[in-house]
Amino acid sequence: MKTKKTMHLLLWLLLLQFSLSSSSHYIPPDNYLIDCGSPSDSTVDGRSFFADPHRTTVNVRPPSSKIFARNQRPSSDLPQIYQTARIFTYPSSYAFEIRRKGTHMVRLHFFPFEGDYNLSSAVFSVHALGFSLLNEFSVAARSLVVKEYFVDVKSDRLVLCFVPSMGSYLAFVNAIEVVSMPDSLVPEIVHMDGRLNYDNFLSNQALEIVHRINMGGPKITPLNDSLCRTWIPDDGYLKTVSSAESKYFGGPIVYHMTLSNEIAPGRVYRSAQVLRANEGSNITWAFPVDLGYKYFVRFHFCDIVSSALNQLYFNVYINGKCASKDLDLSNVTNGFLAYPFYSDFIVEPNAGKELSISVGALDGTMVKKNALLNGLEIWKLNNSMASLDGKPSSGFVIAMDGSGMKMGAAIEFVGATVLIMLAIFPLVVVLVKRMKARRQIGWTRLAIDGEKV
């Protein structure tokens, strides 16, 4: 018995050592941080954003699209990247040289400040790799909007195309991030055993992060995340306030050998919303979503409340239906406490514009009623038209591939009118191919059954 305890302690120390060694920052092969329209470099959250004319590995097409704007009423409360912008008055693109193929994060920053151009009147679309990221997009005056996407780059170039809409003839962007992501961050296939038998390939999809939540804890800024993500508190989404209790754990979070802090930082796993004793049977959150899309949902769990193993059993619900029954964190973490675990699902909201997430205690058992959730991420998946933002504007979608925007020369020499005519045929080809691919893969409704909350 003593030997077994000793072996268990040695294994825990080995995992702790691995966890500490894995806490170093991830170094991405591709790391483009562009301060658009700025004549000089800037620093935000400890990261250096480069003025876009200074990067030889970034090309802007056509070269004549060099209209810059500066905030005429700068604020010390805003980072430097929101004091300037690059302006587009006709279809233009950024092209990034890619060192390592695979999943890349694309983050776009928009802030329509006051200047020579009325940026709040701009209406435009953004496309990449044949996907429509933004369609007929606009930003209200003095509003700061950040859009984040994951795309799988299969060639040596990634092209972002900005297309002003008819009647607006204006597009802009304040800053762009294109960063390689770890291979393990987005799975090739989402597969759930037991009650949930669902497989699908994510490498052919574009994903947009719509919610990244730290349950029970404060906001986590890019300074405290190795992938420079922002995690916001769950206060605004929590529906059953009386049944939830925030908990914080001050000890070490032990990452096992197949999971690192790139999945989520330790600060996510150190806090949780826990079911309050004698105050209901579940904790529920509601998150706004758009109809007509599937969503990739990732739950983050870490047992930071139990004093011993096998004390925490609970159910996980999505839209009121059981998605994971009798979840035993001691079992899935191979007998460790304060040990991160995450679980992935793909769902399609049936009605309404909210995605309901719940964790609930087991009924009819002798087990102490308890449940917890540490963090949650929700990504939107592109629809059958390869769009993350409704139906693409057929008159303005520009077909692209990894080698760059094929119409770049046409934009420069022939003009936007000819460009639109030439873009129609490649667009049809791209959409037809993608619709065929969807039929071959086949989307099926998530089969979740069990009792309602």
Secondary-structure topology with pairs:
Blueprint: H1 2-21, E1 31-35, E2 42-44, E3 47-51, E4 58-61, E5 67-70, E6 84-88, E7 92-97, E8 102-110, E9 124-128, E10 131-137, E11 145-153, E12 157-164, E13 171-173, E14 175-180, E15 207-214, E16 232-233, E17 244-248, H2 266-270, E18 271-275, E19 282-288, E20 295-301, E21 313-318, E22 321-328, H3 329-332, E23 341-347, E24 354-361, E25 372-373, E26 375-381, H4 408-413, H5 416-441
Parallel strand pairs: 1-3, 15-16
Antiparallel strand pairs: 1-14, 2-3, 4-7, 5-6, 6-13, 7-12, 8-11, 8-14, 9-10, 9-12, 11-15, 15-26, 17-18, 18-25, 19-24, 20-23, 20-26, 21-22, 21-24
Radius of gyration over C-alpha positions, nearest whole angstrom: 24 Å
**How far apart lie the N and C ends?**
42 Å
Quote the beta fraction: 25-35%
**Count of alpha/pi helices:** 5
User: What oligomeric assembly is this protein in?
Assistant: single chain
For the report, how would you describe the main beta sheet? 11 strands, mixed
Mean pLDDT: 82
Please state the structural category: alpha+beta
The level of helicity is: 10-25%
**Count of distinct strands:** 26
Shape: elongated
Low-confidence stretches: 4-23, 192-198, 394-453
Q: What does this entry look like structurally?
A:
The chain has 453 residues and is of the alpha+beta class. The protein has five helices and 26 strands. Strands 1, 2, 3, 8, 11, 14, 15, 16, 20, 23 and 26 form an eleven-stranded mixed sheet that branches. A five-stranded antiparallel sheet has the order 4-7-12-9-10. Strands 19-24-21-22 form a four-stranded antiparallel sheet. A hairpin with a 2-residue loop joins strand 21 and strand 22. The chain is elongated and about 70 Å long. The two termini are 42 Å apart.
